[in-house]
Specification:
Elements: E1 2-7, E2 15-17, E3 36-41, E4 44-54, E5 69-70, H1 79-91, H2 96-102, E6 118-123, H3 125-132, H4 140-151, H5 157-160, H6 166-174, E7 178-183, H7 206-215, E8 223-229, H8 235-248, E9 252-256, H9 263-273, E10 279-281, H10 287-299, E11 304-307, E12 319-325, H11 342-353, E13 356-361, H12 366-373, E14 378-382, E15 393-398, E16 404-405, E17 408-409, H13 410-421, E18 425-429, E19 438-440, E20 458-460, E21 465-467, E22 474-476, E23 489-491, H14 495-505, E24 511-514, H15 524-534, E25 539-542, E26 555-560, H16 574-586, E27 597-602, H17 608-616, H18 618-632, E28 639-647, H19 650-663, E29 677-690, E30 693-702, H20 705-720, E31 729-734
Parallel strand pairs: 8-13, 8-14, 9-11, 9-12, 10-11, 12-13, 15-27, 18-25, 18-26, 24-25, 26-27
Antiparallel strand pairs: 1-2, 1-4, 3-4, 3-5, 6-7, 16-17, 19-23, 20-21, 21-22, 28-30, 28-31, 29-30
């Protein structure tokens, strides 16, 4: 027998090994696909995944090496996930070993045992005394932690992670109030009874009841439901009830969210509804936390698994439902390494597992809407907000006819004053962090630019730094022009500068800012959001992070400062992204009793996109945009792939890409014989030089998915045979989100 093993290496092939020697301890262990093995690879021992068993090998018997160690007694992946990963490696044309390694939490891909001793937190005698004593000398979070441990049975670090940070646990441990205690592993010992569920006090709308009934049709297996609900329409309540039905039958639910910042909100909602805490999987967790959550999902202890993109590969042996929240969000597409779409793989996983999937969004992607038109998805609509909440009115503010103060029109300043005076909260949206996007000399026209990229540096005044938002380079900010010695001036607005302007315009109202600069540290985003929810901050300034499904019941006004950034972009998805951003950020207003208002500042109030979006809504925009895509033969009415490459020498980069293009065509830019696909390029990236490397690409177009796959399958092996200049890197991106 030959074991075909995938190794975590940039090689698009499997490696053949012999089983362990008969005299070894592993010889009696049945080896199955999906199990981890330790094998000699080069002059090192590496961990690989057994992909298949074969009767013979193309490698001479004398050259075959034997597996040194079998690391598992059963496959680490359930069958559906195992087959999904094999399919993904083929479809995205990525090395299969890297694909399987990406699906495992840190440590397991390096050979750690799946079964590790777990610990739980318990109150000490001193801690029990503290719970019963007056609490004046304890901080609120310490009181909450001790109360939680006194009343809850879910006390592992991972189970507590949704409410308490490791620092808070260590602080209580340092005071002698809590301690860790080893517990039995849950693998294969858990009861299959459904966890207790608290009844919901929410009264469903007719639309919610109709959607839930369609999702829970008796006897239904796989079905893809596009839950298109306006912002604040109660999509999460539909999720919760659908999941409750799934786990009541003994199943598990997988919930994908686009951003880490959204997981605490969902965890809190699920904790309120279900007795058993969900397992959480995202990149900000420590390796041990992710391994613990992965084990809880695999064993069935966690009936609900909530995670970001990579959670689509979590092994759930009793999977009964998948939910993809904010399905339109580009964060679901991995942009480095293994470039997969978690949303698309979630649909395929649901299909292969025979379970329903819900794709939720207030602004569905054009691809998903086309899938509805093609009959692949069923569309379920939530057209109104429940209760007294109503959709906010959107108004275009013509900036050509308005005096402007620090980026704000007089109309915006007046509206903010009125809403703040009435007790409401205000959101100011600008998708540009920092103080100013440019530092400019009006005397000689010098601009502070990155020495490593073809890009300007952004001024961050509070840090007194110039930063490149592309490569991360930074240097001390200066007020004197490096070319002529004159005074430099910041040009344009960033969130930091807007916050400064608001301090001057509205000194009596506390402000908060949510962007990558303020939310970088663990727990920082939660702290900002807590200030808004508590009412401590009356004005919230932020970037794209504000569009990610946050619920602010007291926000009555949203001001979008610059809606024009995406109007004239060259990328074919720019209009869709702009429309989604406007609708999503506008949806933060008027979500409760307060009426909502949205002001959109623009220099182009008569632009067709803005007129259509504000006048007729997202559905009308999407219908128009799909018609434009069809006429121009852009996805979803064609299929694309990119071959990206970068190198320090632009001449070598261009020569490599031209050589690759020639391998795919008889004549430049013509289809290979019998394959309806064509190659365009080479073309430079929008920022041609980044981090001292020049970047360019080839664009591959095809009429449909099978044609693209046939072409890539024939062409890429030939590209791999090209001589690659030293230092040049190349990769393939199938279904790219950006043609850049």
């Amino acid at each position: 027998m030959i074991l075909q093993v995938a190794i975590d290496a940039p090689l698009r092939r499997l490696f053949d090994y012999l089983p362990p020697p008969r005299a070894s301890a592993e010889a009696d262990t049945p080896i199955l696909p999906g199990m981890r093995v330790r094998v000699p690879f080069g002059n090192k021992l590496r961990v690989g995944i057994v992909i298949a068993l074969a009767e013979e090998s193309s490698v001479a018997p004398a050259r075959l090496k034997a597996v040194r160690e079998v690391l598992d007694r059963q496959p680490v992946f359930d069958l559906v996930t195992f087959m999904l990963l094999r399919w993904a490696a083929d479809y995205y044309h990525h090395p299969i070993g890297e694909v399987f390694a990406a699906a495992l939490p840190a440590g397991l891909s390096d050979g750690r045992p799946i079964e590790e001793q777990r610990t739980t937190w318990e109150l000490t005698a001193a801690g029990q005394s503290e719970v019963q004593s007056p609490s004046g000398r304890r901080a609120p979070r310490q009181r909450a932690l001790l109360a939680r441990l006194a009343t809850s049975t879910a006390r592992t670090t991972e189970a507590l992670a949704g409410e308490f940070t490791p620092a808070q646990l260590r602080a209580a441990e340092g005071r002698g109030w809590i301690q860790t205690v080893p517990v039995q592993n849950a693998e294969n010992t858990l009861p299959r009874d459904a966890p207790a569920m608290r009844p919901s006090e929410v009264v469903l709308t007719d639309a919610q009841r109709h959607a839930l009934a369609a999702i829970l049709t008796p006897g239904s297996r796989f079905a893809a439901h596009l839950l298109h609900g306006v912002t604040g329409s109660g999509k999460t309540e539909v999720y919760l009830r659908a999941i409750a039905a799934a786990i009541a039958d003994g199943g598990q639910a997988l919930v994908l969210v686009p951003e880490i910042s959204l997981t605490p909100q969902l965890v809190a909602r699920f904790r309120q509804r279900f007795e058993v805490p969900p397992a959480v999987l995202h990149s900000a967790m420590s390796g041990s936390e992710r391994r613990d959550a992965w084990r809880r999902a695999r064993s069935g202890e966690a009936r609900v698994v909530i995670g970001t993109r990579s959670a689509v590969f979590a092994s759930l042996t009793r999977l009964a439902m998948i939910i993809v929240d904010e399905e339109h969000d580009p964060s679901y597409k991995q942009q480095e390494g293994f470039r997969y779409s978690a949303r698309d793989l979630a649909v395929l996983r649901a299909q292969r597992a025979g379970v329903p999937i819900i794709l939720g969004s207030a602004t569905p992607s054009l691809e998903s809407l086309d899938n509805v038109l093609q009959g692949r998805y069923a569309r379920l609509s939530l057209p109104e907000r429940p209760g007294v909440a109503r959709a906010s009115k959107m108004t275009l503010v013509d900036m050509r006819r308005q005096p402007v103060e620090g980026g704000f029109s007089q109309a915006a300043i007046g509206a903010m004053s009125a809403h703040l005076g009435a007790g409401g909260q205000v959101i100011v949206f600008l998708n540009r962090r920092g103080y100013a996007p440019a530092l400019y000399c009006s005397a000689c026209r010098w601009v502070a630019s990155c020495t490593h990229c073809d890009a300007r540096m952004t001024l961050h005044r509070r840090a007194a730094q110039l930063r490149c938002h592309h490569c991360g380079a930074q240097r001390a900010a200066t007020q004197v022009c490096e070319a002529c010695g004159k005074t430099l001036h910041p040009v344009g607005q960033g969130t930091e500068r807007i916050e400064e302007t608001l301090e001057r315009l509205f000194p009596g109202y506390a402000r908060a800012r949510l962007d990558r600069d303020t939310a970088g540290a663990r727990g920082a985003a939660d702290a900002v959001l807590e200030r808004v929810h508590s009412g401590d901050a009356r004005i919230l300034v932020g970037t794209q992070m504000l569009t990610k499904g946050h619920h602010f019941p007291d926000v009555s006004l949203v001001v979008i400062l610059n809606a024009d950034q995406g109007l004239f972009a060259t990328d074919y998805r720019a209009a869709e992204r702009l429309a989604q951003t406007i609708v999503q950020v506008a949806g933060r207003a008027g979500r409760a009793a307060r009426a909502g208002e949205v002001l959109i500042q623009t220099e182009f109030p008569d632009h067709p996109l803005l007129e259509l979006l504000t006048g007729e809504g997202y559905d009308a925009f999407a219908t128009s945009a799909l018609a434009e895509r069809r006429a121009a033969r852009w996805p979803p009415y064609s299929r694309l792939a990119l071959l990206r490459a970068d190198a320090k020498d632009p001449a070598r980069l261009d020569a490599f890409l031209r050589g690759a293009a020639a391998l795919g065509s008889g004549e430049p830019h013509q289809p290979a014989r019998g394959v309806p696909a064509r190659i365009l390029g080479p073309a430079s990236a929008q920022i041609a030089r980044r981090a001292d490397r020049y970047r360019a690409h080839l664009l591959i177009e095809a009429d449909d998915r099978p044609a693209l796959q046939r072409f890539l399958g024939a062409w890429l092996p030939r590209v791999e045979g090209l001589a690659v200049p030293p230092g040049l890197r190349w990769s393939v991106d199938v279904d790219p989100l950006e043609v850049d």
